[in-house]
Amino acid sequence: MSYARSLSMQHEHGHLPSSQSPITPKLQFFNSVTTDGQQIPTYRVLDGVGKPIEGATLPEIGEDVARRMYENMVQLPIIDNLMYNVQRQGKLAFYMTHYGEEATLIGSAAALALDDEVLGQYRELGVLMWRGFTLDDMMNSCFGNCEDPCSRGKQMPMHFGSRAHHFHMISSPLATQIPQAAGVGFAIKRDPARRGRNCAVVYFGEGAASEGDFHAGMLFASTIPSPTLFIARNNGFAISTPATEQYYGDGIAARGPGYGVHTIRVDGNDVLAVYNAIKEARTLCIDEGRAVLVEAMTYRVGHHSTSDDSFAYRPRQEVEDRKRLDNPIARFRLFLEARGWWSADEENALRARLKDEVMSAFRRAEALPKPELKEMFDNVYGGEEPWSIREQREELSRLLKKYGNVWEPWRSELQKHKGAGKELMEDSQ
Length: 429
Description:
This is 2-oxoisovalerate dehydrogenase subunit alpha. This protein is an alpha/beta fold.
């Protein structure tokens, strides 16, 4: 029996009361969100060698924007190379690379409005830098020095945030940003100045989508509702757990229809496909004032973080093959070269310039002292300072007065801070 005939017979028996679900006499289970029982397709614009596939629509971006997108993509692995080595030398406590996910980050960043509210996970540095966060800002934040624009040394490296760039502070616990983003989207909807103009955007990995917070955020944003754009970076691994062990269903995209959410799966290594998908998703999100889900299929080429050795749970050859066969930067470069928008000479000049800029920013940040000790108590809470903060400041002042100048471990550590703790020692006198 044809699918159309089956639907026709179902409608002959009417619907359940207060429902659009047609009644059927046929006992039939289903296990797919597609009518033919196949997996959800993946949207793509460029093939593996940078050529538009038949039937694909190129985004309406000019040479200047395309070149800027490419330059931002190239910048990320140059930053990663340096910072990973710096961490291995003991100069940095922690770092997370972006290898292999450059197209997902930059393609989505370029498609968003600069004043859309972004809540990241911990691999969205490219999104923030697209918005104007500088190399100096990034380096100072990672080193937690006296020029750290994010938290003045209170946060771990890679936990960025910038009010000026509408990028909410990253937190370590997994998936907490997802329901928060639904709340941010609801706040935007309640603001007459931003309703119908902006949305909240939340990034997370497929591993974070296994947390209850994912479902809470999706339920909130789809039913309240709120203009919240959910971007799942499905890079194949939740630290050491492969995607095949994280879910049995058809990825993260299959969950969207269960919440009545517009959903698309996109090739996350195709920057133009990501750009098109996010741009359209953002329009749907704002026009309808409710959630939209985008699943970007990519591959985490690097280790999860500097605390991880991914070759303990996946073959090295698998990683090398993906770097060679499905490289998002190489794919976009071939596209640009085919249009006459890029050349080998420009490539060499760009990489030399970026390496110099990254190294210069690193040297400036490394040379700066840590913030004054008293700053650890500032801006911890909004509003009136609680008694607990005052008590802790006073206790540290007493301890510094007693041990700061006589106990070598403290004396050495204090020299790393601007003012060497003198402002707190004087407070205790």
